Amino acid sequence: MTNDRWIKAAPWLWTIGLFVVWEAACKGLDIAVFILPAPTDIWAAIVKYWSPIWKNSLQTLFTTTVGFLMAVAGGLALGLAIGWSRAIYAGLYPLMIGFNSIPKVAVVPILVIWFGIGTVPAVLTAFLIAFFPIVVNVATGLATIEPEMEDVLRALGAKKMDIMLKVGIPRSMPYFFGSLKIAITLAFVGSVISETVAANAGIGHMMLAAQSQFNVPLVWAGLVALAVLGIVMYAAMAWLEMRMTGWAHRSGRN
Amino acid sequence: MTGFVDLNTIRLAYDGGDGTLALDGLTMAVKKGEFAAVVGPSGCGKSTLMKLATGLIRPQEGTVEVAGKEVDGPVSVAGMAFQNPSMLPWRTTLKNVMLPLEIVQPHRRRLKSEYESYVARAESLLEVVGLKGFGDKFPWQLSGGMQQRANLCRALIHDPALLMLDEPFGALDAFTREELWQVMRDLHAEKGFTVILVTHDLREAVFLADRVFVMSARPGRIIVEREVDFPRPRPIDLTYDGGFNDIVHELRGHIAEARAAA
Questions:
Q1: What is the DSSP string of A190-221?
Q2: Partner-chain contact A157 B82, CB within 8 Å
Q3: Which residue on chain B is closest to A161 by alpha carbon?
């Protein structure tokens, strides 16, 4: 095989290799399923509990997606506002830093008091944790407009709105779409945290229930489901980023 | 004063008057259709001068008049180009060149209905600077020299009566720079706009300008005005001519004095 084909095959080889080593270690060292189930045990659990895994995955996907979309809308709006006005920036920045430094798991009990156990706290936790990187990235894109560009346009009589529409917003789009990859991952973390603490559905909840029944292979099957979901959502955002702002990734095209 | 651009006993300090004094007692007048160059030691406030004449900043004292009117805000009769071409990477070269048309009246109003004729106009301008056929390329597909040519087109697309250039050729290699001097010379001859070129390249100033203004070190003012009366069109070989070099030397002497005085 040529070097290029090795590089293409590498992700598959390493993944398969990991599972082979894992399987061999479990069987060879005779590790109890209770401590660390082998990949074949986990696979058996996935097949056996396919229906609950699928249903709970959809629930987690749903809360993550809704929270993420709220974060996109809110983050975009707040990012534009902060990038627009230095006064808004000065006023909100310390608040946002303070807010962002609170571990979101600590907010879940409050959300449960307000909304009860279930879907709403999961959605809101996803939203709260995901919107900060979007705000920061959009505001950064706006704040780094070249001063020469601004002078050229202002000398032509451009209003602030013109500069925003023609330069600021298109310019911040690569930052925005880049932040979506981070935001979707964080939203996922938020959903699962909330489901683990206070929910009656979702992968997080399923894993907690399986743990209390000492069904260790199902706990691990939940982890695998989370990994698959996470990769799919990340890939979707990476694809969207390339699609929307390919001009900012020119080195890949030339 | 009777110029097209009149700066009269300007005093300007940064940060709304509290900061460093940038210009003090600066007076200069540029006639309509004239090609003026401003040279001076670095940090003398040359670029500040550009912002004054286009109304981007206001002086604390003195008056700025462009086309017979006191400047009290951005003047849309001006086109600007800087050393950094600052093309927008998500727009094609043609769309970049046409950007001012989306801002300046009356073009802004007409752009949609007369789009075809505006495109033709932008394409002919691209052809003049030697970028024929590059309109649909993205800026990052162009070399630095080509981007700077496009930058000139963008500054000229709305037919400004005044063109302000801030070291537009400063970052280019020597050959490209000479080529663009000639492009600039021909554009000026053809369209007859007024130009104020800020530069620290004395050969560039003498080759292109009708008059060279020498600024003092900060706080800047005009210390020497030098007419350059070589007949036009000037061939590029002029820059190797004895008389040409005498003027360059003379200006260099003035700037050396200004630096020493600082």
A1: HHHHHHHHS-SSSHHHHHHHHHHTT-HHHHHH
A2: no
A3: B103
Mean pLDDT calculated for residue range A69-91: 90
* Residue A160: closest C-alpha in chain B: B103
Which architecture characterizes domain B31-56+161-262 according to CATH? 3-Layer(aba) Sandwich (3.40)
Report the run of H or E that residue B9 belongs to, with start and end.
strand B5-13
Residue where the block lists tokens 């964080």: A186
Per DSSP bridges, beta strands B5-13 and B21-30 are: antiparallel
What are the extents of the domains in chain A?
1-31, 39-247
B154 vs A150: CA distance, rounded Å: 14
Rounded percentage of chain A residues whose pLDDT exceeds 70: 98
Distance between CA A234 and CA A213 in Å, rounded? 32
Residue A96 above 80 pLDDT?
Answer: yes
pLDDT in tens, A10-56: 999 999 999 999 999 999 998 988 889 999 999 999 999 999 999 99
- Residue of A250, A80, A108, A102 lying closest to A165 (CA atoms): A80
Q: Where are the domains of chain B?
A: 31-56+161-262, 84-158
pTM over 0.80: no
The two most distant CA atoms of chain B are separated, in Å, by: 58
What is the CATH architecture assignment of A39-247? Orthogonal Bundle (1.10)
Query: Is 50 exceeded by the pLDDT of residue A213?
Result: yes
Q: Which two tokens stand for residue A163?
A: 């500069």
User: How far is A96 from A80, CA to CA, in rounded Å?
Assistant: 15
- The amino acid occupying position B113 is S
Kindly list the residues from chain B whose CB atom is less than 8 angstroms away from the CB atom of residue A146. Answer: 84, 86
Alpha-carbon gap, residue B165 to B172, rounded angstroms = 15
Res A254: pLDDT: 40
Contact B103 A158 (CB under 8 A): yes
Pairwise CA distance, residues B103 & B165, whole Å: 20
| Residue B230: Cβ-neighbour burial (10 angstroms; 0-12, 13-18, 19+) | middle
